[in-house]
Amino acid sequence: MLAGLAALTFAAFTSSGAIETFLFDHRVGSMSWGPALFRAVLAFHGLVLLLFAVRKAPANESRHDVVPRACTTAPVVESPSTGAVHWILLIALSLAAAGLRLYKLESPLWYDESVTLLHLLRAPPTEAPGDFLPTYEQSGDPRAVHRSLRYIAGSFPTQNQHMLFTLLARVSFSVFGESAWALRLPAALFGVADLWMLFLFGRRLIGPRESLLAAALMCVSYHHVWFSQNARAYTGLLLFTMLATLCWMNALRSGTWRSWIAYAGAAALGMYAQLNMQFVVAAHGLLWLVRLFVSRDASPGTWRVRLWRPLAAFVLCVTFTLQLYAPALPEFLRSAIKEYSLPSNWNNPLWLVRSMLEHARVGLAGAALGAVGGVVLLIGWMSILRRNLWAGLAMVLPGVLLTALMLSINKNLYPRFYFFCMGFGLLMIVRGMIAAAELALTLAWRDPRARAWGRTAGVTGVALMIVAFAGTLPRCYALPKQDFIGARDYVEARRGPRDIIVAVGLAAQQYRNYVAPSWSEVRSAREVRELARAHDNVWLVYSQPDYIKPRFPDLWALIESECPVDKEFRGTLGEGQVYVCRYRPGAR
After folding, report:
1. To which H or E segment does residue 529 belong?
2. 240 close to 269: Cβ distance less than 8 angstroms
């Protein structure tokens, strides 16, 4: 009741102008109706708290508060209990995961990470002392000025804004100072927490032993280490995806207010981490509706628990999310939501599949072995479906919804968009390896011990996969994500006194804003030819041709025909090579 009264009092007696002044330190007018929405949603939550405070709840949950099991293909399999050994092994895995994710956390930033630093965390140069714009080597200079937590919470200028991560990165800067490793620290900590959540989620479906194997795979996974060292919110989104799905499963099973409110809170935090959480919530909502209508139990008490409590939880998920984003929502609708993806290979689902296969770090030796892996994944999913139909569907439906929406609105399909499904995929792999081995040996030998032998063989196969995963980790540390620094140093060491260096596309933004502010940017073939008439050599540095081709077609045609590559600088980012070339008319 006290919390509800406090929320209503704040909403009623605090003006929108005061909220804007508090967040931005001065009235800038850019928040528009955001503060008013914040106050309205806060008043709604205050009323909800008051209603809960005054309602006469029974001392104990009635028999209708526990929801009967929905019709499934098979009853839910109860997992074995979790013993002390499991927790000890999980702690050991967590310590190993922390070491792997903190090692070389200070490597140079790639493009997306520098956008987070320069556009979301640092104040613009005009707000810094002496118009100071520090380069990469000057990162951490005390003259750099950072946004306040209040300002970050009220701004959403680009889809690159992952709100919860940006706030945590700002806290990290306050504690440790600005550096690449401090910027990435929240992602690394989320990465370690992912192991715990994978275990807690997985033990409900496949038991603690197999969940530990999945956590071990995640611990040494090249991709998970890569994203844990990436200054973005993807490891946090993975954490809240598993947490929200676990809360959803608990709520479907118990039906209590507490479980549904816990689900709403977990889902809203996931939305605050990264907006792709919407596909997880949408999948949960669709599956709840299907489950509601296929249920055969239509008693009034059960219908109330099945319908109104989940519906209230989804409404709270929306209002919690609105409460968190309300100050920044007008700017998001003005700018970030209007970002458009030009036609390119990144819009092509075949490019997505090819990119995933090319950058798999588990030693897949061709399409045949990849097909075997797909069969194992399918077997694992079918096994989980037999144990818990709704959980199995909730593990794949978010990815399906994401793909369908991105294709329908012509947005880029990046492999990282599907990272939030990684925990589900690892559980399917472990379950599939063991189930496939059990099935194969049971069919091959009509012996009562065949199933136990198959389980041992499956566990051995997973152990070998863990070793294979670990063998790919050195690649994660051998190179930076994008080697803009190496390309810059290479060109600077070879440029003549009458040479000029220019950059193209995303590389131009990286060099101009962070790595080499003195470099120029070109956007057309005409500019390159004009520079060539005034200089001995024109050096061009570019990256990610799929970005350049649809935006600067004439410039790309010139690069292909008259700018042979002088040197290529590889990184761990897929198709993120940085190319150095010189303009040579008639070279090709």
Report:
1. helix 525-534
2. yes
Tokens read off for 269: 């935090």
Cβ atoms 59, 28 nearer than 8 A: no
Hey, what's the torsion of the CAs at 243, 248, 253, 256, to 10 degrees?
Answer: 100
3-state secondary structure of 226: helix
389 is written with which tokens?
């139909």
3-state helix, strand, coil split of the chain in percent (to 5) is: 70, 5, 30
Task: Out of 53-67, 166-180, 266-280, pick the least confident.
Answer: 53-67
Check if the beta carbon of residue 165 is closer than 8 Å to that of residue 215.
no
With beta carbons less than 8 A apart as the criterion, state whether 495 and 99 touch.
no
Q: Return the bridge partners of 565, or none.
A: 581
| Residue 110 DSSP class | -
pTM: 0.88
**Exposure string for 37-62, b = 16+ CB within 10 A, e = fewer:** bbbebbbbbbebbbeeeeeeeeeeee
Q: Are 539 and 499 in contact (CB under 8 A)?
A: yes
Tokens 């798999």 found at: 360
pLDDT digits 0-9 by tens, 297-329 = 555 556 667 788 999 999 999 999 999 999 999
Of the candidates 44, 30, 46, 268, the one whose C-alpha atom is nearest the C-alpha of residue 19 is: 30
pLDDT of 189 reads 98
Q: Do the beta carbons of residue 260 and residue 251 sit within 8 Å? A: yes
Contact 434, 455 (CB under 8 A): yes
Unique residue bearing structure tokens 């709520």: 251
Asked whether the predicted pLDDT for residue 341 surpasses 70, the reply is no
**Residue 444 — pLDDT band, cuts 50, 70, 90?**
confident
